[in-house]
């Protein structure tokens, strides 16, 4: 059996503690150190002799990789610093808050030659994987729908956001739609709004219709202020193909005429992300949420927000192109800027991973 990968985790908050529990139960990794701006929070999150520090610079330990579980605004700084130190990174979703901030992260992965993977945990539900296998048997999907209705009272920043549902939640469903359809999105028309009874300041409900490169339409209808008869946090899905229809309620095995729903025996949620990351680091393979691919999921969210603001369909490629222009004006690190400029005459979309 290979030696466990030595991990440094950055971030010891609520999600950070979930990752620490996952690391502790894995035979493939061991925690080499923990970083958090609040040392007391870091110390209270670990037991034994695990070194803690306020930054990667202050943590003098040997490691094989980094888990970035900081707040989204800190993802670019933390992940780029780790990559340029020669360490592969598994970053919590979203990759960054904007596509513009994602692009230097893509460049850092290329410059360093190290893996940057995003933990899109909805890709690692066994019942969701069974749903995807049913669709593969049925053939190309013509229409895919997801209904998402919840009524959470978070308090804090989410209830003050301009687009809480789209920005903080919908990337899960948008990214999963890419996996289920097996093609890339081309455009989106989105309408977002806030019902009179909503306890959110911003738009807590939205309808988005994506067109994919193969002609598939993906429809997302959701609300975070929908009390009663709530859906799963994964949403409620329906896929229509020429050979039949499959449905998945988000929690239980999917249903399709004439097809079984055998559940795979594999790690789920963030444990699934970690397992795929470890395998990719060891083998040099490309995991399904590698940074070049995941950039498209972030662009789907940004395009939906832009469409809702403008009231017109928006091309996903336009969002990436605009972000690229902005990144050229804001990136300061010479090696990252050089990597970005190498794309200037022929911006790849979707961006292809090196090699």
From TrEMBL:
All residue ranges annotated as the GFO/IDH/MocA-like oxidoreductase domain in the record: 143-240
Domain named Gfo/Idh/MocA-like oxidoreductase N-terminal: residues: 10-119
Gene3D superfamilies in the cross-refs: Dihydrodipicolinate Reductase, domain 2 (3.30.360.10), NAD(P)-binding Rossmann-like Domain (3.40.50.720)
UniProt-recorded Gene Ontology molecular function terms: nucleotide binding
Name of the molecule in the record: Putative dehydrogenase
Organism: Kribbella italica
């Amino acid at each position: 059996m290979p030696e466990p990968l030595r991990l440094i985790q950055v971030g010891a908050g609520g999600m950070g503690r979930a990752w620490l529990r996952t690391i502790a139960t894995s035979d493939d990794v061991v925690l080499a150190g923990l970083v958090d701006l609040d040392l007391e929070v870091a110390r209270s999150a670990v037991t034994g002799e695990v070194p803690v520090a306020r930054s990667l610079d202050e943590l003098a330990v040997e490691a094989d990789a980094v888990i970035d579980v900081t707040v989204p605004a800190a993802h670019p700084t933390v992940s780029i610093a780790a990559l340029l130190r020669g360490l592969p990174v598994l970053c919590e979703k979203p990759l960054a808050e904007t596509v513009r901030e994602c692009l230097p992260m893509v460049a850092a992965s290329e410059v360093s030659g190290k893996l940057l993977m995003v933990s899109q945990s909805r890709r690692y539900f066994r019942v969701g994987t069974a749903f995807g296998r049913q669709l593969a048997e049925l053939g190309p999907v013509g229409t895919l729908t997801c209904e998402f209705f919840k009524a959470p009272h978070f308090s804090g920043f989410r209830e003050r956001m301009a687009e809480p549902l789209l920005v903080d939640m919908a990337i899960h469903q948008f990214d999963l739609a890419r996996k289920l359809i097996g093609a890339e999105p081309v455009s989106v028309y989105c309408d977002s709004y806030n019902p009179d009874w909503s306890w959110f300041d911003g738009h807590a409900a939205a309808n988005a219709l994506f067109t994919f490169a193969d002609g598939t339409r993906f429809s997302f209808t959701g609300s975070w202020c929908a009390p009663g008869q709530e859906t799963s946090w994964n949403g409620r899905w329906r896929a229509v193909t020429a050979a039949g229809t499959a449905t998945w309620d988000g929690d239980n095995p999917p249903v399709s005429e004439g097809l079984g729903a055998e559940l795979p025996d594999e790690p789920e949620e963030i444990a699934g992300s970690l397992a795929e990351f470890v395998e990719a680091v060891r083998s040099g393979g490309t995991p399904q949420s590698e940074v070049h691919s995941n950039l498209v999921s972030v662009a789907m969210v940004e395009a939906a927000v832009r469409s809702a603001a403008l009231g017109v369909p928006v091309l996903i490629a336009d969002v990436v192109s605009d972000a690229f222009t902005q990144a050229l004006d804001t990136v300061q690190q010479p090696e990252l800027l050089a990597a970005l400029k190498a794309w200037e005459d022929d911006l790849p979309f979707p961006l292809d991973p090196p090699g």
